[in-house]
Automatic annotation (TrEMBL):
One of its GO terms (biological process) is translation. This is 60S ribosomal protein L36a. It comes from Takifugu rubripes (Japanese pufferfish). PROSITE patterns: RIBOSOMAL_L44E. GO terms for cellular component: ribonucleoprotein complex; ribosome.
């Protein structure tokens, strides 16, 4: 698993950090050893945000079956660009020969996240119809991860 955005409270002081899951134990150990913060791990209150966990199956309406059916959920991925699309053919023709780069290359990227698109496939053997469902932007997306339990202690 990658990084998570963590907000923790140490002796009434709120701190925010982007922490790798494997390094959390070492991070707490270093905080205990530091001269500035003299804390124990029980005083930490972890609040994970920007993390979306979606189940692998979902009961939702199927247009082909005309009723609610279980659907298999996967994450949509963009297909490979065709070499024969009109824009690509025009671009390659313009780029060929002398003269260097002919069109501007986009470099001013502003967004840090992507919009997640779910691909829902009906599990009915005779149907197998597919549809897309867009969800909001999120930093970390997980498909079929462990559910959060109320009052559960974080294990290292």
């Amino acid at each position: 698993m990658g990084c998570i955005f963590v907000e923790f409270v140490v002796n009434g002081c709120a701190l925010r950090a982007l922490i790798n899951m494997r390094l959390i134990q070492r991070f707490i150990f270093k905080l205990q050893r530091s001269l500035i913060l003299n804390v124990n791990p029980s005083s930490f209150l972890f609040i994970c945000i920007f993390q979306v966990n979606v189940p692998k199956t979902r009961r939702t309406y199927c247009k082909k079956c005309k009723k609610h059916q279980p659907h298999k959920v996967t994450q949509y991925k963009k297909g490979k660009d065709s070499l024969y699309a009109q824009g690509k053919r025009r671009y390659d023709r313009k780029q060929s020969g002398y003269g260097g780069q002919t069109k501007p290359i986009f470099r001013k990227k502003a967004k840090t996240t992507k919009k997640i698109v779910l691909r829902l496939e009906c599990v009915e053997p005779n149907c197998r119809s597919k549809r897309m469902l867009a969800i909001k932007r999120c930093k970390h997306f997980e498909l079929g991860g462990d559910k959060k339990r109320k009052g559960q202690v974080i294990q290292f």
